[in-house]
Automatic annotation (TrEMBL):
It comes from the Bacteria. CDD domains: GCS_H (cd06848). This is Glycine cleavage H-protein. It comes from Lentilactobacillus parafarraginis DSM 18390 = JCM 14109. It holds the Pfam family GCV_H.
Length: 125
């Protein structure tokens, strides 16, 4: 995982934004998922996707995301080298979606969990 710059940490301290905690992040098929202090999971694009695909040129959510099952389509992405559909590694209810995905594709090419996260999921019980 990419380190968060000192400037970003200082800015987030003063704006009250919390850093994604990725000390216990796991990776499955190009998606990292990390349990947050509130018990929910943050899912994002792993660095291995960039190595496989090159620079990402397009991204879109394939469906209206509400409830996810393991292996459900999570994100369609196109890169310099290939086109892929990333799958969900966990099941649960989507409680937040990164609406910036697809609007500013350059931020998606940063291996930074603050910008390349996809969804926040409340895990299935």
């Amino acid at each position: 995982m990419a380190k968060v710059s000192l400037w970003t940490r200082i800015k987030n301290f003063f704006t009250g934004k919390k850093q994604p905690t990725l000390t216990d992040a796991k990776v499955k098929d190009g998606i990292w998922y990390a349990k947050q202090p509130d018990g929910n999971y943050l899912l994002g694009i792993d660095e291995s996707v960039y190595q496989l695909m090159g620079k990402i040129t397009f991204a879109d959510f394939p469906t209206q995301l509400n409830n996810l099952q393991v292996e459900d389509d999570l994100l369609d992405i196109e890169g310099d080298k290939s086109v892929e559909t990333l799958k969900s590694p966990i099941a649960g209810t989507v409680i937040a979606k990164n609406d910036a995905i697809g609007k500013d594709i350059e931020t998606l090419n940063e291996p930074n969990p603050q910008v390349n996260w996809i969804v926040k999921v409340k895990p299935a019980q």
